[in-house]
Amino acid sequence: MIGNLPKKAAALAACSIFAGCVSSPAPENMARNTAQTAPADLQLACASAAATKFGGDNASILPVSSAAVDGGRYQIILDSRGQRSTCLIDSTGAVLSLEKA
To answer: Where is the signal peptide (predicted)?
Structure first.
């Protein structure tokens, strides 16, 4: 065991030296998230509508994700203490649908 220690130490040193030489990809080669999220005011409008429809206070209903869908509409996923709901809202702030998931 002790005789292998210098070999292991040398291997670890070589790995750490080579690991420091790895470069990051160029910005144009990096993966990017191009999905458009809903503006904050629309997310809050959905949370408020959920509080009204399902009960509870606005502070306990949080938007956890959002994405643009066709025609200037947004789908927003809300969470209220583990209970999820889905809100569909347009760019003017009109809630089109609000359903428990």
So the answer is: 1-19
Which pTM value belongs to this model? 0.66
DSSP state letter for 91: T
Phi, psi of 92 (to 5 degrees): -90, -10
Within 13 Å of residue 91, how many CA atoms lie on the same side as its CB? 8
- Cα dihedral 8, 11, 13, 17, rounded to 10, equals -170
pLDDT tens per residue across span 52-94: 999 888 889 999 999 999 989 999 999 999 999 999 999 999 9
Do the beta carbons of residue 63 and residue 57 sit within 8 Å?
Answer: no
